[in-house]
Design a protein that fits this description.
The protein is α+β, with helices and mostly antiparallel strands and 398 residues long. The protein has ten helices and 14 strands. It has a five-stranded antiparallel sheet. Strands 10-9-8-11-12 form a five-stranded mixed sheet. A two-stranded antiparallel ribbon has the order 3-4. Strand 8 and strand 9 form a beta hairpin. The protein starts with a strand and ends in a 6-residue tail after the last helix.
Length: 398
């Protein structure tokens, strides 16, 4: 029987005492992460030394013994150690060139979180006690955990709207691969359309951020005016949260549909971090959340026995003719349709790109190269970047 590790996320309503302890834990986690990042950066810049997790863990023990940092001992030590492990993972991703250099955590940016391992919580009869808490967390059980599940890790988060969540990581034997499907699809991400499929279908980009920009600003200003603890503040806070949740719901629906209908899903490896440096498009690119869609497709394909292929970002998918393989010298962004000068075929820019991505994915599947492995693939190594000529050889088979 195949057993996968799966996180179940629930709303939670902590008591005032629990909320106070968690707030202090979040602050300590953020401080330790930033302190360790500064320590490792200084060691490398000044001495050329790469500190590992064990070195920062020993330094943390000495830091907590310092009377000036006695407040670090008021919270559980496990989330602080987990912060060091998360930093180690961030450095590993940087060294493997899968991410940029780790950044300092900000109190105002992002969501606050703390991770507790098995030694820092107690699970009994469906109730969860965190370390240093005398009462169990009031969890809203919107769906049951798998029968007999024993949590291995618990992560508590608080989003910008002030909502509390707990993610419980368990071994889930209930996930079954889907029946094999005959379909395969190439997916071209864009801004005019959120994605364009090789079948010719276009999924409209709802542009949540542009549509809700003024409404979100009004809701946030209203939230700031409300008295803390009042019912009106709670209503305004939920309004802000609902606006922020719609994008994630759409991506879940889209990724689930692609995985259910197709045995193979082919994406292009987009350099989103570089693309958002464009001032004119940064807001729209961030709102499209291409990286989040890819992450959803990765784990859902792994769960349900599908194949996800990610082709090289240097494939000229938009300006290559999907009928004959001719490549244009240039294709400005405002040109949405074009005719191939070699074979006279006419193309919609996005549909043509999606078809080329699918053809490149077929070539990758046949030749076993040009694909970047899933982030979660154990021992996976990125393939050497391919030139466009080998990929073009797969086009006639479309």
């Amino acid at each position: 029987m195949r057993v996968l590790r799966r996180a179940f996320r629930y709303r939670v309503h902590p008591t005032p005492q629990q909320a106070d302890l968690l707030h202090r834990t979040f602050g300590c986690v953020r401080y330790v992460y930033n302190w360790a990042l500064a320590l490792r950066t200084e060691a490398y810049v000044q001495r050329g030394e790469r500190l590992c997790y064990a070195a920062t863990d020993r330094a943390l023990t000495a830091l907590k013994a310092d009377p000036e940092h006695a407040w670090l001992r008021e919270v559980s030590s496990v989330p602080l150690q987990q912060a060091l492990r998360h930093l180690q993972d961030a450095f590993a991703a940087f060294w493997d060139k899968r991410a940029g250099y780790p950044r300092f955590k900000s109190k105002k940016r992002g969501k606050a979180s703390a991770t507790f391992t098995r030694s820092a919580f107690r699970w009994r009869d469906g109730q969860l006690w965190l370390a240093k808490c005398s009462e169990p967390l009031a969890i809203v059980w919107s769906r049951p955990l798998p029968a007999g599940a024993e949590p291995s890790t618990v992560t508590v988060t608080r989003d910008r709207a002030g909502r509390w969540f707990v993610s419980i990581l368990v071994d889930d034997p209930t996930i079954r691969p889907l029946p094999e499907a005959a379909g395969e699809v190439g997916v071209d991400a864009g801004l005019t359309s959120l994605v364009t499929l090789s079948t010719g279908e276009k999924i409209t980009n709802p542009r949540h951020e542009r549509r809700d920009r003024a409404r979100l600003a009004r809701a946030q200003r209203a939230l700031a005016r409300k008295e803390k603890g009042s019912k009106n503040r709670e209503k305004a806070r939920l309004k802000v949260a609902r606006i922020a949740d719609r994008r994630r719901d759409l991506l879940h629906q889209l990724s689930t549909r692609l995985v259910r209908e197709n045995q193979t899903v082919v994406l292009e490896d987009l350099g989103v971090r570089t693309m958002v440096k464009n001032r004119r498009l940064a807001r729209a690119i961030s709102d499209a959340a291409w990286a989040e869609l890819r992450a959803m497709l990765e784990y859902k394909c792994r769960w349900y026995g599908r194949r996800l292929v990610v082709v090289d970002r240097w494939l000229p998918s938009s300006k290559m003719c999907s009928a004959c393989g001719h490549v244009l010298d240039s294709l400005p962004l405002h040109v949405r349709a074009w005719a191939c000068p070699a074979c006279r075929a006419t193309h919609d820019r996005d549909v043509n790109a999606a078809r080329n991505i699918l053809a490149a994915g077929r070539a990758v599947t046949a030749w076993g190269d040009g694909v970047r492995p899933h982030r979660g693939t154990p021992g996976g190594r990125p393939s050497v970047k391919q030139e466009t000529q080998p990929v073009r050889a797969g086009i006639p088979g479309l």
